[in-house]
Design brief:
mainly alpha, 126 residues, 4 helices, two-stranded antiparallel ribbon
Length: 126
Amino acid sequence: MNIKDISKKSIILFMIAFIIRLIASFVLNSFQDINYYEYGTIAQNIINGNGFSFFSNPSNPGEFANGAYMPVGAVFYTVPFFLIKNVILRNALYLIINHAIAGFSVDCFIKQSVIDLMKSQLMLQP
């Protein structure tokens, strides 16, 4: 097995992972309403000019709590999607890009595992 074979197999693996996740999205999700949980709330507050904050009291929407306990990377990844006003388009793009990232991650982890295995086998040979 050489690097070219690994590349071809990794592309196939990426496509399989991506397609399975995409099919699951279309079957299990309603693109009209996807809950972004705290990340979406904080992203919406950033866009509205309320900073990196989270509602602390739902009965008093003007009262904001510091959202510093939330992971910053996930929120800032979510913010550009909230600039898209069409909810269906926003949710579809969000899911498709997330699935592409997940498929690429699986591909990288498996490719690195195969390369490490190949190196270890080469080292064991007399």
